Amino acid sequence: MTDDHPAPPGHGARASQQDHRAASASRQIDALIARLDDWRGAQLAEVRALIRAADPQVEKQWKWMGTPTFAHDGIYAIANPHKGKVKITFGHGAELPDPYGLFNAGLGGKKWRAIDLFEGDRLNKTAFKQLVRAAVKETVARAKAKEGTKGKA
Q1: pLDDT for 50-103, tens place per residue?
Q2: Cα–Cα distance between 20 and 25 in angstroms, integer?
Q3: Comparing C-alpha atoms, which of 93, 65, 59, 94 is closest to residue 80?
């Protein structure tokens, strides 16, 4: 629902507000990447491109005073540049299969899992996209389950 992809009929003011927020978040993420004049900018740009490739309907958001977030019926990942690393955190990472062992941080937690990328690290693109798809599937399932319990009390 950009200039190249107009909103389908029936998507009124609410869709327009969502489109504006997504465009604004995308611009803010672009600006963050541009400000990072070292390897972290390139790494964050690659992470965003891989997420978009794995989840074409991803909703990019800008939360918590400067955190790029990625959502599909709920936030499933955040990506932050830190001094010396780029951290990608998956909100329900403990529930996700990780056959390639991408998760290397937050392994003891009951909910979150993260990937810390350091200078020179190479992200397994195929495995990362599989992880993103699994995160989307988990997030969508949780949203549907939550929706199904509304009004049942």
Answers
A1: 999 999 999 998 888 789 999 999 999 999 999 999 999 999 999 999 999 999
A2: 9
A3: 65
